[in-house]
Amino acid sequence: MEELFPAIPSKEDLIHSILTQGKLDQISKGGKYHCILRLTLELNQLQIGGELLPDLIELYKWLHSDLSQRITRHTATNTTISDVLQKAIKHSSEDAGDHLKKLYENIMRNCMQYQNVDETSATAGSINLKRRKKIMFNNRTPLLHFLSG
């Protein structure tokens, strides 16, 4: 990599270098710079996703272990994840409630960051890279979204 891009201090400089060295034909899907450019553009998103995944798994496990047998399909369809967590926090011990609150806050913060990174890195100069589908998780997400498998 050093012989192709010597002393490039930042990812923005790497992107600029690839785009300005007349290598646009090698950026297209399958081109030798496509993978480097895509990974560079998606690095922040991958890092945030890596931080988000353990919290989502913990939330999913909690929902399935504590609620899946106690709630009807109708209630799960008409109740948001935010409402369920607020009720659970209120009726839990202080430690358990604090843990659920922090877990949910971390998930919401990381989901927003993940979506914001996805929106801001959607284009690189004139190269428009195909984007993955965004996470559709917010305070209005129905509980059924997590309980249906």
In short:
The chain is an all-alpha fold and 149 residues long.
Strand content: under 5%
Number of helical segments? 6
State the total count of DSSP E strands: 2
Distance between the termini: 44 Å
Helix content: 55-70%
Poorly predicted tracts of residues:
122-129
Which strands sit side by side, in order, in the main sheet?
Answer: 1-2
Write down the overall mean pLDDT: 75
Overall number of domains: 1
Radius of gyration: 21 Å
Most strands sheet: 2 strands, antiparallel
Structural class: mainly alpha
Shape: elongated
H-E string: HHHHHEEH
Can you tag this structure with a few keywords?
mainly alpha, 61% helix, 3% strand, two-stranded antiparallel sheet
Fold topology:
Layout: H1 11-20, H2 34-66, H3 73-78, H4 81-91, H5 94-120, E1 123-124, E2 127-128, H6 144-147
Antiparallel strand pairs: 1-2
Q: Would you write up a description of this structure?
A:
- The chain has helices at 11-20, 34-66, 73-78, 81-91, 94-120, 144-147, and strands at residues 123-124, 127-128.
- The protein has 149 residues and is an all-alpha fold.
- The longest helix is centred in the middle third of the chain and has 33 residues, at 34-66.
- Residues 122-129 have low confidence and may be disordered.
